[in-house]
Amino acid sequence: MTNSWTDIKNTDLVLIMGGNAAEAHPCGFKWVTEAMQQRKAKLIVVDPRFTRSAAVADYYAPIRVGTDIAFLAGVINYLLSKDRIHLDYVKLNTDATFLTKEGYAFEDGFFSGYNGERRSYDKSTWGYQTGKDGYVLTDDTLQNPLCVFQQMKKHYARYTPELVSRITGTPQDQFLKVCEMLAATSAPDKVMTICYALGWTQHTVGSQNIRTMAMIQLLLGNMGRPGGGVNALRGHANVQGITDMCAYSEVLSGYLSAPTDADDTRAKYLETRTGKPLRPNQMAFTQNFPKWHTSLMKAYYGNAATKDNQFAYDWLPKRDAAYDILAMFERMHQGKMNGFLCQGFNPLAAVPNKKKLSAGLAKLKFLVVMDPLETETSEFWKNYGPLNDVDPTKIATEVFRFPTSCFAEETGTFTNSSRVISWKEKAVDPPGLAKPDSEIIARLFVKLREMYAKDGGTLPEPIAALNWPYINASAPHPAELLREINGRALADVMSPPDPKNPAAPPTVLVKAGDQLPGFAMLRDDGSTSCGNWIYAGCWGPTGNLTARRDNSDPTGLGVFPNWGFAWPANRRILYNRASADANGKPWDPSRKYLAWNGSSWAGGADIPDIRPDAAPEQGVGAFIMNPEGVARLHAVGMAEGPFPEHYEPFETPVGVNLMCPTNAKAVSNPAARVYKGDLEAFGRKEEFPYAATTYRLTEHLHYWTKHSRSNAIVQPAPFVEIGVDLAKEKGIRQGDRVRVKSNRGEVVAACVVTKRMKALDVNGKKVHHVGIPIHWGFKGVTQNGYLANALTPFVGDANSQTPEFKAFLVNIEKA
Amino acid sequence: MARMLQRYSDSERMNHWFIALTFVLAGLSGLAFFHPAFFFFVNLFGGGSWARILHPLLGLLMVAGFALLFAKLWRDNLINAADHEWRKKMGEMLRGNKAAMPPVGKYNFGQKVTFWAMAISLAVLLVTGVMFWRPWFAPLFPIGLLRVAVLLHSIAAVVLILSTIMHVYAAIWVKGTLRAMTRGTVTEGWAQVNHPLWHEQVSKGN
Amino acid sequence: MDMDRRQFFRVSGAGLAASSLVALGFSPARAIAETRAFKLARTTETRSICPYCSVSCGLVMYTLGDKAKNVKASIVHVEGDPDHPVNRGTLCPKGAGVMDMIQSPGRVKVPQVREPGTSTWKNISWDEALTRVARHLKADRDANLVATNDKGVTVNRWNSTGFLLSSAASNESGYLSVKVARGLGMVALDTQARI
Amino acid sequence: MSSLQSLDVVARSATTLPTPQIRTAAPHVAKLIDESKCIGCKACQVACMNWNDLRDDIGNNVGVYDNPSDLTPSSWTVMKFFEVEPTEGNLEWLIRKDGCMHCEDPGCLKACPSPGAIVKYANGIVDFVSENCIGCGYCVKGCPFDVPRISQKDNKAYKCTLCSDRVSVGLEPACVKTCPTGAISYGTKDDMVAYGNRRAEELKERGHQNAGLYNPEGVGGTHVMYVLKHADKPQLEDLPANPSVSPLVSLWKGTTKPLAVASMLGAMVLGFFHYMKVGPIEEKEKTEKEGA
Question: What is the CATH number that goes with domain D6-247?
Fold first, then answer.
């Protein structure tokens, strides 16, 4: 989240779209009802189903699954065509005035530079024109047709309300009502917030879904302001934490892009990732990349990482291809994977196309599952009748199941959606022989290190050299690890040369051995070590700030600065410089967050997200991570285009992309990666006419709470949801058992017939939805059921590879 | 020694006393629920829950017993013209002026009314009692209906108890009646005073 | 129509008869109504964080005993932490029922192995489990670690063993797992955050 | 260790003489359920079963979200879901937390024949004292809201206790504390009535013209109240429009009792004096007439 849970109470309007906050995050949703009661805020819910969020909403509008971009693009068109935008904010904080390159174009579903075979874009025609001084060219009058503002206006003029209604199935009057309610927050003293979750991310256009909303928030001037921002309501208690630790192939801890084959030398690797300002005076914070990366290598390899071995650059594995979860299972399916470590994750249930996963797992030599609970994945080889119809004798995988402790049996920190890192103590011992994950990994590593020391093997050096300073090698204490993550000075950290009087001798900022107070102290000369630069400061010289429990909120804006530690640098709202206008005065005096008091930004409600002494007239942008210092309406980094464009899901009930009806290649996301075999596995609307979506219920957390008796009682058995009119068509009554089939598998469950899912009028035809909750499997104390992901398509978002769970095609009949 | 007339057979008497016994037991346990002051009667049955468990069973036994006796005696208790005469003179009877009463067969009008009052109230007790008999039958009926049932059950019980009090007092009040049920025989004098028509009928008989 | 129950009883005759019978010692036991003894008195409180969604509500875990040595503490009740600024003592249906997950019959309690082709679990010791897995990892790494790619660039990547990391474990466990994975040269890493 | 002594019991079932009435200044507590903030998440159900150590059976899905579908001896509060269209065209999903209303004049207590099985405390809570419960089911007939449930296993009646044990040591009920959106609030009756009315006004401003506080007078007001979006049509959510203890129950437990007992005892006394005055009817009267 750019803002925080408790900040939501400061808002004037909440849009819940692409998510179901009331059901998935009930205790966070209290701040929405708080805003509704205290500030008379309004709540809008846009969702294919009338969810429990809609039950308490002021306004609900239906929408067809997978058409969020069409809806939001229609909103952008509404805002631009009716000039309902916060112009001063847009000119100050976005790239609206930048000139795009001449070569940039968009024609009939494709942006310039599309390569059909490789299903990707050559992005040379995207981006900004830069002058000789390396800075971007701009047109402050916003009239030049090449400026981002005009390009955007032209691009989104195509999304007329009539066409948007035809694509999304949302009645035109309801769509326009939502547009008007959103447009009202373009006023400087009005703010709206967006609460979204997997309803947006789990599409092949997932990342662009979110970007479209980010653009709307920028046009309305709501980013970086209390009650504003783009708020992802994440799924797990520590999913933000594990994201920050970057357990991905693409990045190292602290979102440092990992080396690939192209980065043959360390210099080249650092150079391509160190940001340079694209406009004068921008902080371009990524210019500090070398300091972060060197400190990380010192944390990993300690003394073994020195200047002369390029700080152990060669020991870092270089990535040659994609290794996301879908790619891994594809490799497994092709028999290229031998081993698989599965820690606290139940992929057989959580990843699409169960049949393919099961086949992949069966080809492994060994599978190690580390989990507190008996998961479906750990017993993929066991026959559970129709729920898991496999023949164990034909599965040669050697499967290990390690008992791990659960959250109540492990001391350590969690990072919540609002980036707040909180320390928790262990309450009880783990049952039986279960151990914490860290201890299991440590024992495994120590045993491997012994084996390599005794018998040698391929490239033993990094294993021997891995920095393992823990008092108990096989059970590193969480305090030791958190201090290592925070980082400490290996040698005295000296102050940088002072521009005002360069002759002055440098002073010692941090003594050798001390914990670092923040990432400003990181150096690229090996004098500092830091496991994750964005967490620097969480265990500084004054101790473990994540364990702070002072819940005072002096400004009343829900900041709670002394509760735990928020990364980066305990900042509670990102880009908060944007909460003040060009000369440092808050846009809305009633919600004064940050102000320029003539000499500094400090003293406001939060740590400023800018250099404290950056006077407004210097024009230092609020978006310090971007080289241009401002937010991007025109984003080069996206795989499928600088401006979000509507594309149908891969399994579309309409069969054509109404934005470019003649271009058969641009029906679905032209840049999404589709493996051979999966293309054929996509169902056609003729055989599978109904648009289906999978989702969670408030009573369960994915595949975890089916092991909990309390939750089983309040939501005992699998079911699917259909509308009254579909039920009538199919002769299905409330409670009947129904069989839902996709091109990849089937699910049998009870049927909830409800008025809350109406058929939508899409392009002149009726489209029905089928809702499939995901919480049941063949393990657990609930009534057992089919894994919903037997149905879902094996294709992911073009940028993040998040699978398209939220829009596919099924057929349904009485079982 | 004055001649004895056979009023009731042994089986009828056993049946009567069986009904009386179950009446006392069902009555006491019923009264325990009827009014808090009588709740201590549950201690005779081993506590509140046991009283609640036994009361319906005792009730059924009583109804069964009564049904047997009813089958034998209901014809004698049919109300006829003569009874209306007796009813008009009832005030005299109560003042003890027996002689003023018209001749009566086996049962006088008062006894017939008591008989039918008992029969009807027992029928109502049976039907309503089974309706809210937990746990087997109560769930089958809507709560509104059960409220009517418990009210009727209470009223019927009161009617039954009052009839029984009347029945017992009459037996004490009219000397020589008790032996009809304790021994089965009555004196000829008793018969002539109280049931002259029955007396003639029986005398002609043997 | 319904006269106040109490006044009517006062005047009714029944009270007279009842009191006389009561005098005979037949009165029912005068049980005073009492509420349940307070369940959490003397339990140990531990402040924790709910493992489920990313609101990360504050929890108070009440465990048996006062941490004396002979007590095997187990959780008897879980409630929201009223001091936590986000949930302020509230919990959703999942958090409120978290005790049933911690003490679920589905908890794995001992290291187990399923030998290839068999259809049952076999309990094994930690040492045997870790040794066999370490041996598997070493064998696969030694065989499949790619030192240099076809252009001669040092890559040192080992992509034949994948690692899915937990989004439910602590940051410290996550950091250590990533550190070990990168130390071993693994590139096939992923986590729940992507799903 | 219970901190509610006999002085805190203001009413006891099947007790002819009043219990101690001296604590007149004891604050009346109340729970307010604000339907406009209720997201039907069932956290209150889970918190209730966890606090009271109850675990119902794991049922099946019968095509609705209500699980379990009704109050049971082991589920003292249950969410009821109603898909209604009060005004044509706009669907509303009304969700109501069902459970004991803790009436000021409790029908269950009035109907219960067992002394001390149902008590009402000075703070307004109506509680079942299971040791005295004889399982007769009268409370089911007495309750205007159909709340008490008799267990098949032990033939005892069970219902929400408004966490009388937590309240007696100064804590709020478990469901109140856990409610994520603050739909359930707790305090003195007056505060909750005031807050409920204020919420109703706020809802009127948001377009719910008929929003109102549900605190039915027919049972003397309740210690569990609702703020309903459609207070004019509570039957939309299976709530009786103006509930009161059924007249049949009042008749049954009110006037018939003393009258009937008086009539029975009176009949015996009457018989005794009649016998004394009129004397028995002698058998021999026949012989004297012969003799004369």
Answer: 3.30.70.20
